[in-house]
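Thread: quick sanity check before group meeting

JM: Hey all, I'm pulling together slides for Thursday and realized we never actually wrote out the predicted structure for the chain we discussed last week. Dropping the sequence here so it's in one place. If anyone has concerns about the input, flag it before I start.
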Amino acid sequence: MKISKIKIRPTQQTLLAGLGALILLVSSCKKDPLKDLTAEESRVYITRYDSTANFSNYQTFRIADSVTVISNGRFAGQASTFFDKSIITAITQAMVQRGYQLQTDASKRPDVGINISRITSESTGVVSYGNYWGGYGNYWDPFYWGYGGYGYNFPYAIGTYTIREGALSVDMIDLKNPNTVRNQLNTIWTGLARGAGIFNSNNAVSITEALLSQSPYLKP
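JM (edit): ok, ran it. Output follows.
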């Protein structure tokens, strides 16, 4: 069988080289959806609301002056760090911009109350790496050390790991229409933020805007 040689002209070589360089450049600039996420892109915002609530019926609000701390499912107290004050201010300003009135008179009951919570969950586990050569059997001569029939016993390793997760929760509570039958207050809106930097005071405004942008119905 005769094989013909294919000759590539200099112009074709230049074109192919340029095309290869372009493909390499495009592939190198392609963003990895997992490894190249920015802190902002890693954040997740979830909102939910009571579909029976008519938010136009609420005019005034009051926000707690401290943030509730919940650790591993348990109440851990109230906090007023710089971040806590920043998120309280950001949410207050956003609600006012939406048209709600901040109720500062303690003798008057606002239509809704807003609570903010910092939720953290931490879990620790232990992992054993076992015998490294366990799957290879007696790799060396079993008589090397003069003890025929004895296998090799390699030291194993045990490691510990800790997983720490955090979330920021904003809850809007109906104070205007308390459930007198069950003697409880109903939560009519909740916003949840998770991801990198959610407890960073520099992100308080962007987190608030992201949550409220998903809730266009929040207006009097």
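AS: nice. Confidence is low (pLDDT under 50) at residues 1-19, 21-28, 131-147, 150-155. The radius of gyration is 31 Å.
JM: adding both to the slides.
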